[in-house]
């Protein structure tokens, strides 16, 4: 599911941006979900759950926590979220580079539809350009899938089940061993947490003593024998050491 957050304390623009995004995604046949927030404080209170959003549209001038501070809080949690500033004030545009904002859009009713569409086109192109694809011979046939869409791979009764990010109810399966798959994905950000689980570190929220918590709330226990190695690899992946 492609998730977008719109954070604006002006209800009129909040609704207008959501309507434009809905229209864009319907026209492009996308699966989507758009959540709205009335303040930056409300958004950052989500904590790690902010990482579920692919794009965040932020107004800069908001009470309590303005858009720039909200963006900095988002960046503390994730470098992958695309931040788009939508505001009535041009003077803040240069500050957007401090948080790696992908676009700075003015609240102009005439140009806003074009700018939102252009922004979405640009973000989708960036996402597509950064995806790593791999061919797998699943039981339903050969499929090419993006590796970052894989949440985790589970070994079950001589088969491997691929749990996908956007299609939770659909499992891709293939015959093979997790040892072999671990070798194939060794350089692709996957971590062996358990004898039966190979997890995509992109979707891990945290690794704490003897367990890992995924961004979607799924929790995996980590055996003591594997914990130190798993913790070190995850920290290295996150750039913490």
Any chance you could write out the topology, listing elements then pairs?
Layout: E1 2-7, H1 11-27, E2 32-37, H2 40-44, E3 55-58, H3 67-77, E4 82-87, E5 103-106, H4 112-130, E6 133-138, E7 141-146, E8 150-156, E9 159-164, E10 171-175, H5 178-184, E11 190-194, E12 197-200, E13 204-208, E14 211-214, E15 219-221, H6 224-238
Parallel strand pairs: 1-2, 1-3, 3-4, 4-5
Antiparallel strand pairs: 6-7, 8-9, 8-12, 9-10, 11-12, 13-14, 14-15
Helix pairs in contact: 1-4
Structure description:
The protein is globular. It has 241 residues and is α/β, with parallel strands linked by helices. The two termini are 32 Å apart. The strands form four sheets. The chain has a five-stranded parallel beta sheet with strand order 2-1-3-4-5, sandwiched between helices. A five-stranded antiparallel beta sheet has the order 10-9-8-12-11. It contains six helices and 15 strands. Helix content is 31%, strand content 32%.
Short description:
31% of the residues lie in helices and 32% in strands. By secondary structure, the chain is an alpha/beta fold.
Amount of helix: 25-40%
Query: Mean pLDDT across all residues, rounded?
Result: 87
The sequence of SSEs as H and E is EHEHEHEEHEEEEEHEEEEEH
Termini separation comes to 32 Å
Which labels suit this protein?
single chain; 241 residues; alpha/beta; 5-stranded parallel β-sheet; 6 helices; 15 strands; 31% helix; globular
